[in-house]
Amino acid sequence: MQRSLIDSVFPNMGKFNAMFKNMCDQLKVEDPNEVIRLINAGHVKVVMLRNFLDLNTIVKLNPTPLKKTTECFSGVLWRHIPDSFYDSLPEYQEATGSGKSRAFRPEKDMAFSEMAQNLLDTNEENLVNLQWALIEAGHFYTFPQICDLVDRQEAGENVGLIKDHSNIFFIKNKEGGISVVRVRHRIQLFKKWLPDICPFNYGPKWHPEIRVFSRN
Hints:
Layout: H1 3-9, H2 14-27, H3 32-40, E1 48-49, E2 52-61, E3 67-68, E4 92-93, E5 99-106, H4 112-120, H5 127-137, H6 143-154, E6 167-172, E7 178-185, E8 193-199, E9 211-215
Parallel strand pairs: 6-9
Antiparallel strand pairs: 1-2, 2-5, 3-4, 5-9, 6-7, 7-8
Helix pairs in contact: 4-5
């Protein structure tokens, strides 16, 4: 990509240039003027949510049926999951209708609570309130929805997932609150997808190479 050309088009606009360069990479466009043309024509939408960069990856979520939680994340695409993975989860994953899924990239290191603040566009710091707000806004996923996205990504569709870095999804736990599923695919290590569960109040921050997903 012609980064010097982009810098000459938008001089002294470091944060916007970083976003614009990322869009050029995502769209596989060499000439920044072509991205401008796509934006003006309405084919590309640029959205900044506080410290999130919208990757312009919006895909339809297919309806999914009621499914036993322990029957999810199975099949040849998934690495074996220990029984302890399911301890904090409800017995069944609820049925869902169609919807939309959007992928974001943080612009700085973030904890899960900060990711939620960005998705909700709020300064709320109470973790319980943030969880309820995520549920009310419908930003959480079910396991069948995540599995469907992985299936589609492996079939060649760009649904926003990345490999060798974490893909973050908010999900409902058996207490009715929010937990976080981190889905990874380590090409060199196990060549399969692997989910793991983190509590919403997990302390360490995550680097900007991850992807954060929002439903609806």
